Amino acid sequence: MDIVDYLNNLNKDSVSKFISTTSSDILVNQDIEKKVSDTSWMDMIEESIPYLDNIIRNPRRFIVQEENIVPIEKAKVVTEESIRHLAQNTNLIQEVHEDGTVIPLKLLNVYREETVDLYENRFIKSLVDNLYVFVQNKLSESDQKSYAKITSNVTYNATTKLKNGTFKVSLNLESKIDDEVNAKKDGHTIEERIEHIRDVLGAFRNSTFIKSLKESSPVRSPIRKTNVILKEPNFIKALELWEYLEKNNIVPMTSIVKETKENKDLAIKDKYDLAFFIETDALSENKEKEEATFNAAIISKLINDFVFSGNADKKEFKSIINKEFKEASKRKEKIVNNIDNCFKDFVNNFEKKNKKAFSLLK
Predict the structure, then answer these.
(1) Helix boundaries (H) for 222-309
(2) Residue 146: CA atoms inside 13 Å, Cβ hemisphere, count?
(3) Is residue 127 domain-resident?
(4) Which of 153, 204, 253, 340 gives 38 a disulfide partner, CB atoms 3.0 to 4.6 angstroms apart?
């Protein structure tokens, strides 16, 4: 019989009766190791990359103006500031010709240069450097994957008494389960996401903007909340990322928990009790088959002995078998009747003695 058909055709009353007369015990021990890697740092960095890219591609610039008083022969450009300064400082005039031509001794030289060395830009450069170190530290900590490893040991013991004997079972089962958490995002694995972050950071660090600030002094917390940092959307996101990195450099982002659990789960025990029933049922069916096979073997030997020992035909053999079967049945019936009569006599004598005893007591 197919196992599914067998289970569908189980007699529920027989199963319930079996389980009710079964003494069983189960113990489940579990060793659990869980590793939880917080990959939110990847989400935060991936979310911030477009904002940082906007700043690095279009950095803020400032015009630096240097003013130096230099000998007239070294002055390269005469500007309005130079003339205004000379008018205010006549001591720098060497001579004045009759036609009004002024010959200065020294002249104010104004030098203007565009620079990106601003606080806000140095803040971004420091953020990129910190971000690079942060990612390197995360990668050196451990594997970024989360998983659960569960080793279970089940011990089950049961005993039951049936009409044909006592049955006992002792079972030990061990299972090991390794379950890895799927942390894909937009179809990309953790490894692919990390590789992308590293590539982008490498491009940021090699950009002209970041290299131009190589000699600038780094920015440290607390961050000065300038109008640009507080109001410009790209810098607002950069500040969020800075604060996130500071927080998560202190708080561990990966945790490994190991624990051992021991319990006696009744739901599991019921299933093992059912399995015990199936085992005993299978043994009973097998015993019936063995008895049928044994009986068939006896009859086969009887027939073979009779056939090969004489010249009896089939009709005579059937006649002898029927006669012997009837005689045997009569003997069995007589024995059973004798047993019944003996039992009845015993009961009658017992009742008579009880009545006599009660009459004496009265």
Answers:
(1) 227-231, 233-248, 266-309
(2) 13
(3) no
(4) 253
Domain assignment of residue 304, given as a range: 266-361
| Helices and strands, number each (H, E), in the chain | 11, 8
Q: Please indicate, yes or no, if residue 353 is contained in any of the structural domains.
A: yes
Q: What's the predicted TM-score (pTM) here?
A: 0.50
The count of structural domains within the chain is 2
What's the half-sphere exposure (Cβ side, CA atoms, 13 Å) at 59?
Answer: 23
Q: How far apart are CA 112 and CA 18, in angstroms?
A: 100
Which H/E stretch holds residue 260?
A: strand 254-263
> Taking the CA of residue 3 as centre, how many other CA atoms within 13 Å lie in the half-sphere pointing to its CB?
3
Per-10-residue mean pLDDT of the chain, 362 residues long, equals 71 82 88 80 92 93 64 73 74 75 73 77 94 84 72 90 81 83 72 88 93 90 92 95 84 70 81 82 56 56 63 70 77 73 62 58 49
The answer to the question of residue 281 being in a domain is yes
Q: Are 238 and 54 in contact (CB under 8 A)?
A: no
Residue with tokens 């049955």, as numbered in its chain = 167
178, part of any domain: no
